[in-house]
Amino acid sequence: MHNKTPLFHIAKRKELPWYGAWAIRAIAVLLALVVCAIVTTALTGENPVEIYKTIWKGAFGTPRKIWILCQNLAILLCISLAVTPAFRMRFWNIGAEGQVLIGGLATAACMILFGDKVPNAVLIVMMIIASCVAGAIWAGIPAIFKAKWNTNETLFTLMMNYVATQLVAFFVIVWEVPKGAGKIGIINQSTEAGWLPQIGSYKYLLNIIVVAVITIFMYFYLSRSKHGYEIAVVGESERTARYVGIKVGRVIVRTMLLSGAICGIAGLLLVGGTDHTITTTIAGGRGFTAVMVSWLAKFNPFTMVFTSFLLVFLDRGASEISTNFGLNHAFGDILTGIILFFIIGSEFFISYELKFRKSAKKEG
To answer: How confident is the model at residue 336 (pLDDT cuts 50, 70, 90)?
Structure first.
């Protein structure tokens, strides 16, 4: 029996130049658009070009839509930046949703309990501190258990999401206005106490600036600081980290405290800067979407700006499709899923290549 050489095999590709990697991603997007066009025609009979125009208008059709897009991008980017240090350390923090909720709950508590008791500047400082501390504590609990007893951080952080959701649900009933309404409503609507200041006539500009500052900070923190170096070493090998004298437990706890604090800031921006209320759904699933953003960007804070934009752009476009064409919102999600599938798949071809079997030459 002769062993047959396989038709092709997968080999690790040499590192591509940046333009080569982006060329593969661009081809993936073009292929995704072709597949989306075929699916659109087959399932709805609509002109795919009109569908694509509607997606664009859903994101950029009016100045208001552009600002909403930027606001949603800023919040998603903020949460993605928060989970990135933990992921680089191979600590699978799936609890960003709960950490955002707890940060938002702490913000709402300050607004409700102290809105008419302290000056507004003092109140906002209290909100900032409370949201950061609350988020840090919520992330620090599973970090301590991981560092001390090596518990499973994925399950621990995931379960903390449910606890946070129920805590928010409890206080929504405690603070509901009017009684029996099942919701809080706009907090301090008459006095605007605790509302983050608006810059000029731009409602969301402050949120965008805050997240831009966090993005720059996180880039230098991860790539240029001692803490960032320790995170990278722990992520590569805990054994190596211990060998070179890094205290792994301390790095885990410190990193998760930072992640939780940034998630708390996201909760602050949502409650104090955008919605001015608190609900169990205020995070809107962004804590889980942030995982995809971080991985697609390969933990690079600046690249996350583009991956966050892509996901928010597709989400806004999907909403516009369902409105303009009377289609189920799920159809927009189908198109989003196809595009993401191709983009994620392109990462495989950036890292690996297919090598086909060469034809054996007959000996003469």
So the answer is: confident
Each residue's pLDDT tens digit, 273-326: 999 999 999 999 999 999 999 998 989 999 999 999 999 998 888 888 878 887
Bridge-based pairing of strands 8-12 and 352-356 is antiparallel
- Let me know: does 114 contact 177? Beta carbons within 8 Å: no
pLDDT > 70 fraction of the chain, expressed in percent and rounded: 96
Segments making up each domain of the chain, as ranges: 73-301
Q: What is the largest CA-CA distance in the chain?
A: 97
Query: 158-165 long-range CB contacts below 8 Å, 24 or more apart?
Result: 158/94, 158/95, 160/95, 160/98, 160/99, 161/94, 161/95, 161/97, 161/98, 161/101, 161/287, 162/98, 163/98, 164/97, 164/98, 164/99, 164/101, 164/102, 164/105, 164/138, 165/98, 165/101, 165/280
Return all residues near 18 (Cβ < 8 A) that are at least 6 apart: none
Token pair, residue 4, equals 């047959």
Q: For residue 255, how far is the Cα from the chain centroid?
A: 17
Q: Give every CB contact of residue 232 below 8 A, 6+ residues apart in sequence.
A: 88, 222
Q: Are 241 and 88 in contact (CB under 8 A)?
A: no
Token pair of 191 as six digits: 């006095």
Tallying the residues shown for the chain, one arrives at 364
pTM for this predicted structure = 0.91
Count Cβ atoms within 10 A of the Cβ of residue 362 and give its class: 0-12 exposed, 13-18 middle, 19 or more buried: exposed
